[in-house]
Amino acid sequence: MTYCVAIKLNAGLVFLSDSRTNAGLDQINTFRKMIVYEKADDRFMVLLSAGNLSISQSVREILQIEKLKDSKNDEGTTIWNATSMFDAARVLGAAIRRVHERDAASLQQSGVDFNVSLIFGGQIKGEGMRLFQVYSAGNFIEATPETPYFQIGESKYGKPVLDRVITPETPLDEAAKCALVSMDSTLKSNLSVGLPLDMVVYEVNQFQTNKVVCIDEQNPYFKMLHNSWGQKLREVFDSIEDPMWNGESTTVPLMSQSSRNMPLKKISTPEDKLI
Amino acid sequence: MTYCVAIKLNAGLVFLSDSRTNAGLDQINTFRKMIVYEKADDRFMVLLSAGNLSISQSVREILQIEKLKDSKNDEGTTIWNATSMFDAARVLGAAIRRVHERDAASLQQSGVDFNVSLIFGGQIKGEGMRLFQVYSAGNFIEATPETPYFQIGESKYGKPVLDRVITPETPLDEAAKCALVSMDSTLKSNLSVGLPLDMVVYEVNQFQTNKVVCIDEQNPYFKMLHNSWGQKLREVFDSIEDPMWNGESTTVPLMSQSSRNMPLKKISTPEDKLI
């Protein structure tokens, strides 16, 4: 399993991925799931991958050389000459379809689904930043102000904090912190997501970044965040009063007149019928 | 979808279930998923169900009359005369198998899995409290001090807080609060889990309870908990410092010497090879 998250803000982009790959619990390895494509002062793109590792590695290999031709005399669009991130995402889709042509039938014969999912985002000079989620069929969707982030892999544990915090106006470093909390919750609950983490933070219109970090067990910030979050969450939990039942005096009773309108199904003797 | 959770503590048992059932997003209904079996001063049992509603309703119907015979002359064990919760859980398993015999083949012809999962717990006079998770095949597992709770249905969003708080020593009302926080996180993230909630809190050796409540949108305690939890979680998030990058002074740098040992895969020009 995998957990990757990418966030598109007005101020820039945040990418975060774990590095655990498993084929069963007894075959766990470390594979990095993030790759950066950079051409100075022209384009900056990041690819995150989840799903079958053989497929995602093939896609990454082919993406380097894939040419998308829309007509016969077309010279071909590549990720390096595409004039928009939309076209670059189409090239990625074409690379996935090429791997599908090559491998899908054989995989199916072995009972393996053609399963890969990707996040692809960045900026090409001449337009704003864009962020896409790309599916196994090579189709894709784009992040919007209403849904400014994408997750792939084991996404559920880390979703609540993203929903509570992220808007397009969130500052870049705060969004990076949010992505790390989201990852921390996922690491805690799912053994198949593991350190080290790769994080890239990109500032709008820079076409490069020096905010690239590999986070392992020794990283002081991640250690601090992990410990603080766990401890303070517990303090918040303790600060909320326990439920009081009827007969006890409280301003926020758990049992109230209005909530007794739907009595629970209760069978009190063997002879009772289901009600 | 559904979310149910049950917790076994030294002090008693907590059961909580939502009430949303859906067959596609355009067919959402309210069905209660909790049922209480009670025989004064003799036994107190609670059943929670998730999965295919037609199966779980059939199981509940049959459970009332199911007799488990271990030998030819055996009078038959029912949930009303079983001398242990283990035997009562076996009766429940037998009820599931009876529904399986009746319906599984037809369901399979329609491409529907025989999918039901149940939590069954309580106390029968003569032994301590016990809590079981029962599967579609009628087999079951029992909660232990190391794993004192079970969840069925949409379990991921609500798992982290249970893991952080619950131990066998947790007081009963605190565990009830924890179950409600767990449910609140699930409600926030999954549309197919919905109010009202049913909650039962059982105190050890009582063989009855008056702590039974149906919680709807108007419940003052649940409203308070929902608002406080969301707001305080955000305060905790804000109280943790944002990551600082290299060059800036901080005691907990995100980028440190030790974390730069594994450089990220970076392709800087079209000619670069994948490294």
From TrEMBL, chains A, B:
Signal peptide segment: none
InterPro entries listed in its UniProt record: Ntn_hydrolases_N, Proteasome_sua/b, UCP009120_prtse
Region (Disordered): 251-275
GO annotation, biological process: proteolysis involved in protein catabolic process
Pfam families linked to this entry: Proteasome (PF00227)
Polar residues biased stretches: 251-261
This protein's GO CC annotations: proteasome core complex
Name used for this protein in its record: Peptidase
Phylogenetic placement of the source organism: Bacteria, Pseudomonadati, Pseudomonadota, Betaproteobacteria, Burkholderiales
